[in-house]
Amino acid sequence: MSNYHIKHLEEYFQVYRKSVREPESFWEEIAEEHFVWRKKWDNVLDWDFTKPEIKWFKNAKLNITENCLDRHLPTRGDKTAILFEPNDPEEQTEHITYKQLHERVSRMANVFKDHGVQKGDRVCIYLPMIPELAVAVLACARIGAIHSVVFAGFSAIALATRINDSDCKLVVTSDGSYRGNKTINLKGIVDAALEDCPGVEHVLVVKRTGESIDIKKGRDKWLQPLLDKAYADCNAEIMDAEDPLFILYTSGSTGKPKGMVHTCAGYMVYTAYTFKNVFQYKEEDVYWCTADIGWITGHSYIVYGPLINGATTVMFEGVPSYPDYGRFWEVVEKHKINQFYTAPTAIRALAKENLSYVEKYDLSSLRVLGTVGEPINEEAWHWYNNNIGQKQSPIVDTWWQTETGGIMISPIPYVTPTTPTYATLPFIGIQPALMDEQGKEIKGNQVEGRLCIKFPWPSMARTIWGDHDRYRDTYFTAYQNNYFTGDGALRDAVGYYRITGRVDDVIIVSGHNLGTAPIEDSINEHPAVAESAIVGFPHDVKGNALYGFVILKETGESRDRDNLRKEINQQITEQIGPIAKLDKIQFVSGVPKTRSGKIMRRILRKIAGKDTENLGDISTLLNPEVVKEIMDNAL
Mean pLDDT, 10 residues at a time, over the chain (635 residues)? Predict the structure, then answer.
């Protein structure tokens, strides 16, 4: 029997040792014993990091939705699969059983097929956090279509870029979405995006807010009437282990977003195994991850990981501050939540508010707390531990990425002793390495370097959609025969890992990866702007916020600065989305550059973070005099 559910530290070390010494036989046991296959694999793993090419469970046949749904029907058919908590606390919670979810997914899959969607076609899903989002994701997987979920906070331009990059033929959206006390017209955003998306043949619209919208004849249809008429059963398409399951876009250090491709079998095995252990999930538990399915956290730990394990997973439409700052804790009490997984940004925002918002609710059901999206700072960790977990519920500070598909470094609750701000030990099967700038591995403990992974794991992204060369160049060329994460880390005296942040031009703001290049490109399109440079600086709530250094053209010099700041942020909102807005914009005559013309962001980061004591030698810069000017006028 494989160790599917690790229960103590000695067992962790025993299982971990096996997983790195004999990875193929380890993952084979897990895969054989805990999943439904239509055909077994020929061999467990083929890999070559130089190409790079990775294949897990080669030639196996399966459908991931049979593992999420069908196999649970005999024993868990009446168990709640998805518990939907609407934005408005007065609106009734919806309990969707495994049997009902199976039927809803089948109907949606049949509607997709009726609209010409076939195996391998791409479907863009641009929806708020409502049950139809999870249903649409699973319906795509049911028929072998590749889902591309785009977070419903992205602008029309950002949406169009993603639709065109993966050549989606169908879009699923809603009339609008609720966000606290606001309503957002999502269909209007989709209409604007589709002006530049010739490949889209159909738009299916969920009625959610009752917004007044345009229905374009021949292209747009209301979804519900189609679902009502659709057949309530749909055969699962037989998929190859390495067939693409979904594309999910993440920011890169160039302007173009990267469509990470995840495949069926390895992703299924790894997300299910990590979910079971990192959250110590038990049969009767109610599990809540507060993320949006528009991000990888929602894919892996709201939809696939929980449902494969037959869990009850909560989908929350709202925000932590509506109708007041007690909303999270009200939901925990209401549904007796056992595992609660959220972002450090949310914790910091809630920690700023009066403790009475927490104290009025009974949080005694909580058994495991988790954080995701960025390393959690010590102050937030202690607030979370003391006030939410009552020092009784271990905190799993999970480190992973869109590219990794599943959690890579994390404590296992009640197994791994925790240390604030540390992601602690690698998960089963994960072989981390710290590298120096020369590309050599740094051995031993109490060291710091660039975080790489030495050996493939089942849920790793296989490529970037349509651009395998970029996949190789981004992740596999910096450190030969290693996957480079883009993060720095340190390893302490006992071998615990602490993530120290990005070492490339990507900034994590409120847990979201934002590449500097697309934001700078957007700013530079403003008619008054000559050039710009973006860096992150520490922020009490977001972790990092964005600081823009903007050089104006001669024509912009006479403009009112406050109006310019508003216009620049408005332009960013329209082209990327409000998550990429700048907190500070400083107008400068120049930015520090090397003699070859490269912007010295390291110096700008120090100035933005008010750490100007250690700027290093600036005499070799092309324009050292500009540094003092920027420092004197820093915001």
Answer: 82 96 97 97 96 98 98 98 97 98 98 98 98 98 98 92 96 96 96 96 97 95 98 98 97 76 98 98 97 95 98 97 96 98 90 93 97 87 96 96 97 95 96 92 94 98 97 94 93 94 78 79 87 89 91 84 94 90 94 72 88 74 85 90
What gap in Å lies between CA 617 and CA 347, rounded to an integer? 39
Question: How crowded is residue 236: how many other Cβ atoms within 10 Å of its Cβ?
Answer: 21
Cβ distance 17 to 430 under 8 Å?
no
585 occurs within a structural domain? yes
What is the rounded distance in angstroms from the CA atom of residue 296 to the CA atom of residue 111? 26
- Do the beta carbons of residue 66 and residue 236 sit within 8 Å? yes
Strand 529-539 and strand 543-552: the pairing is antiparallel
For residue 568, give both structure tokens. 């620049």
Q: Identify whether 567 is part of a domain.
A: yes
Q: Strand, coil or helix: what is 295?
A: coil
pTM to 2 decimals? Answer: 0.88
CB 616 within 8 A of CB 561: no
Q: Is 551 helix (H, G, I), strand (E, B) or coil?
A: strand
Q: Which of 369, 458, 355 is nearest to 407 (CA)?
A: 458
Tokens representing 392? 């009784």
Q: What is the Cα–Cα distance from 549 to 61, expressed in whole angstroms?
A: 53
- Picking from 521, 571, 514, the residue whose alpha carbon sits closest to that of residue 546 is 514
**Total domain count for the chain?**
1
Residue 622, in any domain of the structure: yes
Task: Report d(CA 423, CA 447) in Å as an integer.
Answer: 15
Question: In whole angstroms, what is the distance from residue 630 CA to residue 547 CA?
Answer: 13
CATH code (residue 626)? 3.30.300.30
